[in-house]
What does this fold into?
Amino acid sequence: MTGTHLSGCPRVRGDSRPAVVVTDLDGTLLLSDGSVSERAVAALRAVAAQGTRVVFATARPAWSARGLLSAASGLGAFLVSSNGAVVSDLDGGGVRRIRAMTPATVRAEIAALGQRPWAVDREHDRLIGPGWPDILASGAGTALRVGDVPDGSPVLCLMVHIDSAAPPPALGVRGTVRWTSSGPGLLEVSAPEADKVSAVASVLAGLGIGWERVVAFGDAPNDTGLLAAAGLGVAVANASADVREAADALTACNDDDGVAAWLEGMCLCHV
It folds into this structure.
């Protein structure tokens, strides 16, 4: 397997064009203002036209991600949302896979974490607990303020504010849940199989494609496993240090359209 470091011809194992491109959104594909550039959309359309399948993999809930990716409709792309809790079709919205937690499990995690500020994403809405300051950067969706997690709808993701100055907690499966993080000061709790690797693996199984033909882009701890599993894992230049160390290759930062630059190189090198 060979990669590229900011420049050069990007290839995956066997010097072939990737069959699947997987990209994170915030801090990776998206600009810092939360938008998708015209350049990025054009690059995604170019690789899709060459037969490469596109997967967007994000911590955002599906309803937020779809709003941001409206310009990328028509790609036949897959959407992995809520850190892998849901796999769906970007265009039609059909759900292919879902891994959720019971409200009782979430309440137990909140109690164990010391009643820090929290919010939860369910399939169609967000609930904000005591002390949570806003609804994050997840678009114009409404969020109901609650005192506790109610019974009823399963929970896709629990988000908890933690001290960003303290050493980060150990991430991974912890009993009946999985801990991950998409940014400093934020802990995300999901079902054990609600992670980007498991979710993308389900997409690949349906396509009959192996990981060796995947290129993945990311910037945060919740992308590390994905970059390690892919035939080529590419970190954007603004990625956290551990993600850059885990990656096979490095591209420009999100605000310099690093993903688009890499994809443009892929199109030019594999004609």
Remarks:
- The longest helix spans residues 38-49.
